[in-house]
Amino acid sequence: LALARDRGLLGSEGPILVINGDGILNLELEPLLEGHFRRRDQVTLALLPHLDPRRWSRVHLDVSGGIAAIRPPGAPSSGEVPFLYPGVMLLSREALNALETRPSGVSTTLWRQALKQHAMGGVVLSGHWREVGTPGDYLEVVLSQTTGRVFCHASAHIAQSAELKNSFVGRDCRIEGGCRLEDSSLSEGVVLGKGVFVRNSVLLGPLDIPEGRILDGVALAPKASDQDMTSVS
Question: 16, 28, 146, 179: which has the highest count of C-beta atoms within 10 A?
Answer without folding.
Answer: 179
